[in-house]
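User: Hey, my collaborator sent me this sequence without any context and asked if I could get a structure. I don't really work with proteins. Can you help?
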Amino acid sequence: MAIDTDTAEHVPGTVRPNERVQRVQIDGVVLNQTAVIGDDRGVILELIDLRQDYWKDGAPYLYMGTCRPGRAKGWGMHKLHKDRYMVLSGEMLLVLYDDRDESPTKGVVQEFFMTRDGLNQLSIPAGVWHAHLNLGQTDLIFANAPTQPFEHGQPDKWRLPIDTDQIPYSFDKTQLLGW
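Assistant: No problem. I've predicted the 3D structure and written it out in structure-token form, which is a compact way to encode the shape of the chain:
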């Protein structure tokens, strides 16, 4: 017996075809869903496609990082460049805090749950603090393609401890230690 779809609710599309970039709550943050193409042999994950508007600033630098299960990294902020995070393997909770004086979203905290197969690319504007937590049971593997290369002698990097009271967000200690 077939289900009568006339009684079911039609779900509208959230993204038009060929439009993967979406604006989000914090001003200037951009999400990008890349294609994950797989078959019985394995998977191809598109990382950078300079034809997309998401990559309009180019990709002058790319690095890979890891985070152990139950561990967090951050808080970090850059004054001169954007970060563009990409999850390659694992589950990441990425938390942003907008502390920019000129921003219409100053004071906003926003969480993003990122995986390779779901939301997997996010652009973080200069001046927005960010930290991430590995939610999975294996190492989180991510890449970052900032809009400027890292300057080892004079980095564009500011840090606060993960448990700072200057940012209105608290990672639960049981999350941080994997208890």
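In plain terms: The CA atoms of residues 59 and 145 lie 6 Å apart. You can pass these tokens on to your collaborator as they are.
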